[in-house]
Design goal:
The protein starts with 9 loop residues before the first strand and ends in an 8-residue tail after the last strand. Strands 1, 10, 11, 12, 13, 14, 15, 16 and 17 form a nine-stranded mixed sheet that branches. An eight-stranded parallel sheet has the order 2-9-8-7-6-5-4-3. It is built from ten helices and 17 strands. It is an alpha/beta fold. Helices cover about 30% and strands about 25% of the residues. A hairpin with a 2-residue loop joins strand 16 and strand 17. The structure holds pyridoxal-5'-phosphate (PLP). The site of pyridoxal-5'-phosphate has 11 residues, from loops.
Length: about 375
Amino acid sequence: VTLSELDTPALLIDLDIMERNLGRVADYARAHNLRLRPHTKTHKIPALARRQRSLGAAGITVAKVGEAEVMLAAEPDDLLVAYPVLGPRKLARLMAVAGRTQVTVALDSLIAAQQLSAAAHGAGLTIGVLVEFDAGLDRMGVRPGEELVALAREVAQLPGLTLAGLSFYPGHIKHLDEDGLRRLDALAALLAAVEADFARAGIPIRIVSGGSTPTLFQSHRLPLLNEIRPGTYIFNDRNTVAAGACTPADCAVSILVTVVSNARGASVMIDGGSKTFSSDRSAVAGDVTCGHIVEAPDARFVKMNEEHGFVDVRDSSRHFAVGDRVRVIPNHVCVAMNLHEQVYGMRGGEVEQVWRVEARGKLQ
Ligand SMILES: Cc1ncc(COP(=O)(O)O)c(C=O)c1O
């Protein structure tokens, strides 16, 4: 099957770019002695998790128990659920997963730890715990300092659990500009303080897991950090480009769409809107476009309805005829992947792989 035979909208993965992205990060992690535990919420495909493992990933990361169930197919040695798991139904499912591979959970409350402990103890299993601290995103995580040390100490005493280490997510560093570099320096200082706190408390910390795609290649500058969990890096997207963490040539995913109307003149309609791309705007303030049109960078994808993409063509030198097909690099690839039933791995204009996005919609 060739590109021209695919119907639209279709999510395309340039396999050469993807392989290069995977290899580059695997090499970086190896060179700096960092464990790589890729977040699979970006691709949601067990075959790609397998590929990450074969390149040396020490384990994989998921956000949801449903994703963990799907990712068992990749036979990971170690599966991190980077999200607290609460309630008997989810915990029962998690224990079934833990019966098949080593499971670690990141959490930030004693309640979550106690529930996990009871479930693990009841099932005769041992679950690893990463105690989560807030590194500045103000989303999850206890405050570093006494609160963090106290929670780690309590986790270490609970039956069925083993304190595997600490985790954080530096999602507040979106752009490595002057402000981003200042935030990175502040994070380095924070990590040094956390290290001192645990040394003083005499609590050994094996894993310190952090690392996002935008901060990826700065990871070796952060003390204490010995595991990275990037997800987006496998494909990259416009946000990664805006972050200064890659170039447009490193974006492996584009969405093939068809021009369905040019009746309005100033803007043409493409057959992909928020149900194809997601509504995520660019993470960089001031940039309000919904995606980058590869064949016409001077056309602006300015607005979406559910099934209509509005492309302002007033400044574009390209003529858009009804039936034309163009590719669009999405702003945020993880949410775009979640919207597609199947995706196409492309090489040299040919479809080499068709993958079902097996963990799409696994919200529970
Ligand atoms: C907890 C956690 N870890 C890792 C990641 C991966 O980061 P990125 O998407 O920048 O690769 C995310 C992304 O949202 C996350 O929420």
